[in-house]
Amino acid sequence: MDIKNYINGNFQNPISNNWIDNYNPSNGEVYGQIPNSNKEDIEQAYQSAKSAFKLWSNTTLEERSRIMLKISELIEANLDKLAEAESKDNGKPLWLAKAVDIPRASSNFRFFANAITQFASESHESIGQNAINYTLRQPIGVVGCISPWNLPLYLFTWKIAPAIAAGNCVVAKPSEVTPMTAYLLGDICNEAGLPKGVLNIVHGLGTSTGQAIIEHPNIKAISFTGGTTTGAHIAKIAAPMFKKLSLELGGKNPNIIFADCDYEDMMATTVRSSFANQGQICLCGSRIFVEASIYEQFKTDFVNKVKALKVGHPSESDTKVGALVSKAHLDKVMSYVEIAKEDGGIVLCGGNSVTIEGYENGYYMQPTVIEVPTDECRVNQEEIFGPVVTIMPFNTEKEVLNMANKVVYGLSATLWTNDLKRTMRISNQLQAGIVWVNTWLMRDLRTPFGGVKNSGVGREGGFEALRFFTEPKNVCIKY
Ligand code: NAD
Q1: pLDDT of 306-331, one tens digit each?
Q2: Which terminus of the chain is more solvent-facing, meaning fewer CB atoms within 10 Å of its CB: N or C?
Q3: 282 is annotated as an active-site residue
């Protein structure tokens, strides 16, 4: 199935007629072509967004909100179709796309449709000076949104929804590896009555299409989610043009387990936080640290549970681990098993690719647990972004905090304990943008979302996202 760019409400081929293959990770086959758009396509998308901006930025909040709620409803109404497309493009289990990815895309529109009606700005009375200051929160204009392949529609809409709610018009690029649901969103936006040009979706490689968005002199804000190396590259280009930047980047998140935790709850959640979506969630807890007194018990129970996870075709309802997103990614993840061994790691389970009958060319891998001799080895320091976790014991709070923080990343952290004082001490000192205690990936869309250190700059979520997509302007009136 071939897909097209969505510009000014129309579906069109790339101007250069340059196309790239779209693979189905579950069987390794090419099942369609996607545009590899260039500067000219981006210019068209920009012009379309620019023309729409005057109307959209002056559209009442009630009307913007009404259209966005309609988009949300239509995503829900198309749940099956979108989930099937997501699973086929990405390799994730179909049940997961149905239960999480697509409903969350719908929630993103619903949430920001409501949030914008509650978004207020400040005023300050300058006492004794007969003056009042008030702050306008004005849309930026045309903004760029670039998203990754791991949670395709979920993260694409997490950017687009606040951007358009705030009155901007958008040039957006989904990952070239998973473009399908973003393509289908175009039809939904037309059906919902989103005015032409408010959202433009342009497909292609990061180095051509993405780069053209970043380099466009009049796209004044970039919201990016993806790898840390790409984020650094984008920052270098955007900084001299003084673009506003939101960067949501990689992670290497610690999962810290104390002996006083609720063991069963911790175990079930730790299996999920390690291997959900084939371990391809930036928030997965890929470094597991366990208090020494329960380490041996944990190791036995965890490995038994992981061995029982079914690796299978994404369409099968009992599949727990589907296909990895691409051959290149599978090779990269697999290479870390060898790196771990060279560094003295012991593979406790997994470590191999999997061949599934009927889908022999799919990109499957066993969920893998590696016991590491030190937290400083490469598998414990570098983002793998696949079904591979490391485990090691710790003795003291100080020691585990030190290891948890001793990476370049700082996205999220998980802590398992029932000791309130310890919870407070550790949460305060963890270098992370998000800390979960006795849970994982529990999300409330009002909360700030993002990382510190090499995990990014800025926050998404709630009013943080609406602040990013608006420029504050202070007006001071003397009376
Ligand atoms: P990536 O950086 O390769 O690509 C992300 C997007 O950027 C894609 O759309 C890609 O085409 C585009 N891109 C690539 N080069 C570009 C360039 N030169 N200019 C402009 N755009 C360019 O990342 P990925 O492999 O798609 O995703 C995996 C990474 O994303 C992991 O590191 C993961 O941790 C991270 N991630 C972070 C979060 C978060 O919220 N912090 C969420 C999900 C994924």
Answers
A1: 999 999 999 999 999 999 999 999 99
A2: C
A3: yes
Catalytic residue among 84, 248, 291, 371: 248
Residues 183-195 as b or e (16 or more Cβ within 10 Å = b): bbbbebbbebebb
What's the CATH fold of domain 5-249+455-478? Aldehyde Dehydrogenase; Chain A, domain 1 (3.40.605)
Confidence (pLDDT) at 382: 98
226 lines ligand 1 (CB under 6 A): yes
pLDDT digits (tens, 9 = 90+) for 145-204: 999 999 999 999 999 999 999 999 999 999 999 999 999 999 999 999 999 999 999 999
β-pairing, 244-248 with 221-225? parallel
228 CA from centroid of ligand 1 (Å): 8
Class of domain 254-444: alpha beta
Confidence band of 291 (pLDDT split at 50, 70, 90)? very high
| % of the chain exceeding 90 in pLDDT | 100
Distance CA 404, CA 288 (A): 9
Q: What are phi and psi of 199, to 5 degrees?
A: -125, 125
User: Whole-model pTM above 0.85?
Assistant: yes
CA dihedral 28, 29, 30, 31 (to 10 degrees): -120
Closest by alpha carbon to 435, among 202, 253, 212, 246?
253
Fold match, 5-249+455-478 / 254-444:
no
Residue whose C-alpha is closest to residue 369's, from 325, 304, 419: 304
The Cα 90–Cα 337 span in angstroms is 23
Task: Evaluate if residue 1 carries a pLDDT over 90.
Answer: no
Domain limits, the chain: 5-249+455-478, 254-444
**Continuous H helices in 241-396:** 263-275, 292-307, 327-342, 378-381
The rounded Å distance from CA 103 to ligand 1 centre is 22
- Pocket lining: 225 vs ligand 1, CB cutoff 6 Å: yes
Residues 43, 197: Cα–Cα separation, whole Å:
13
Indicate if the pLDDT at residue 12 is higher than 90: yes
pLDDT of 274 reads 98
Residues 6 or more apart whose Cβ sits within 8 Å of residue 49 = 142, 169, 170, 171, 197, 198, 200
3-state secondary structure of 174: coil
- Give me the catalytic one of 145, 169, 261, 282: 282
For ligand 1, say whether the CB of 410 is within 6 Å of any of its atoms: no
CA angle 427, 433, 437 (to 5 degrees): 40
